[in-house]
Design brief:
mainly beta; 15-stranded mixed beta sheet; 6 helices; 47% strand; elongated
């Protein structure tokens, strides 16, 4: 009995001691040191601690080198590859870390104002229309179970690409009395229904009682393009239909240059807006292949030009972004790209693709005077910190137009088909 009590007391003392060790500052520091370090070739990343820190390469490796100072390690990427380093405390190895060196990557930052035109895959249903018939007001589309947000992909087995494709089927149905066999896309699921057009007593024409749309247009900001492949990313967020509020499923699309004509200044509760027009020649400078939560993506026909700088710059991974000063590139007058001061208020080092990776605040007096902060049309404006492209402006806070969200650039690069990690990560 006595021995059992002694054993329990010793056990409690050991448990308390082990727990206490976790609160000793040196131990906490070394526990928090990263287990994985990623750096681009010909670039460097920093590992910092408030206590002296040392590290050695586990094996001879040409992938990276280490520069050491008192409380800092500089990891210099040399060649793409993987290796290990070991953190050292008082001559004893305390922790290992995997070092991954990615191939060198540089992109040209944007900031240019662009016009965007999206063509939907099929035709989008944006509303129901009540037709005056001999039996009262009815909507054939609503009766057939067609919902707002549905995409009409096929009618009677024929592919539908634009609104004008629908009219001949309605006219033929009115003559023959045969119904329309619709194939719909609803939330990425394919559905079938039968629709009977009805005669409008006002003009005796047959109608389906649906408002439909096959395209959308707007303006935004170019974020980056890769000079070799001409792949680009813009906007930083998905384009949704103005009526259905659902993301537009893109068949194809085009981007053009645009010119900012004026600014509607933002205020608390009322976001501002860039007012712009497409370039007079309506020259298509690139296509649109994807419309995703991270922006629009495609390929340019030629270099954008007209940027703040046409020199390629390195990009930063999400773990490299720090709270503090940064810059954004955007247009507030005509087509001149300018640089403005912002503050990174918070940032999340994300391991998987996700939107809203950082919060930014406009601090530049000239931009605040001109726009009041972040305005519609500024989405996609590149964010630059320490000479690296770190992300893009995406959303404004309605109750504080000086602040908003940004997305980390690595997820936009991934969506553009520039796979940094040579993996198939999906958005969370």
């Amino acid at each position: 009995m006595y021995l059992e009590k002694i054993r329990k007391i010793i056990g409690v003392i050991l448990l308390v001691s082990l727990v206490s060790i976790g609160f000793i500052k040196p131990v906490k520091e070394y526990v928090q040191l990263p287990k994985q370090i990623t750096v681009f070739a010909n670039q460097q990343t920093t590992v910092e601690a408030s206590l002296p820190i040392k590290a050695v390469k586990e094996k001879a490796s040409e992938a990276f080198s280490i520069q050491q100072s008192k409380n800092q390690l500089l990891i210099n990427g040399k060649h793409s590859g993987e290796a290990e380093l070991v953190y050292d405390f008082a001559g004893f190895p305390v922790k290992r870390a995997d070092v991954k060196v990615l191939p060198d990557l540089k992109v040209i930052p944007g900031g240019q104002s662009i016009g965007v035109k999206l063509n939907t895959m099929g035709v989008l249903v944006v509303g129901h229309h009540q037709i005056k018939t001999a039996d009262g007001k009815k909507s054939p589309g609503e009766i057939a179970g067609v919902q707002v947000g549905d995409i009409i992909k096929r009618i009677n087995g024929k592919q539908i690409e634009k609104m004008s494709d629908v009219t001949p089927f309605i006219q033929n149905s009115g003559k023959t009395g045969e119904p329309l066999k619709l194939v719909l896309d609803r939330d990425a699921k394919e559905l079938q229904t039968t629709l009977y057009p009805l005669k409008d007593t006002n003009d005796h024409a047959y109608r389906i009682g649906l408002y439909i749309r096959d395209s959308a247009a707007g303006i935004g900001t170019m974020t980056f393009f890769e000079p070799n492949s001409k792949k680009y990313g813009a906007l930083g967020h998905v384009i949704s239909d103005m009526d259905t509020k659902k993301p537009i499923v893109v068949d194809d699309g085009q981007i053009m240059r645009s010119t900012v004509t004026s600014i509607e200044k933002g205020s608390n509760g009322s976001p501002g807006e860039k007012l712009a027009r497409f370039s007079s020649d309506h020259e298509v400078i690139g296509n649109i292949k994807k419309n995703t939560p991270f922006g629009i993506f495609g390929q340019l026909k030629q270099d954008m030009g007209g940027g703040f700088s046409d020199l390629a710059m390195p990009v930063a991974l999400s773990n490299e972004v720090k709270k503090g000063p940064a810059k954004i590139l955007t247009v507030v007058e005509n087509d001149k790209v300018e640089e403005f001061d912002v503050e990174i208020v918070s940032t999340i080092p994300q391991k998987f693709p996700a939107t809203k990776g950082m919060v930014i605040k406009i601090t530049d007096p000239a931009l605040l005077k001109k726009t009041g902060g972040i305005v519609q049309g500024m989405s996609g404006s590149p964010i630059i910190q320490n000479g690296k492209l770190i992300g893009a402006v995406t959303h404004v806070f309605v109750n504080d137009p000086t602040s908003g969200y940004g997305v980390h650039i690595e997820w936009m690069l991934n969506e553009a088909g520039i796979d940094l990690y040579h993996s198939n990560q999906k958005a969370s």
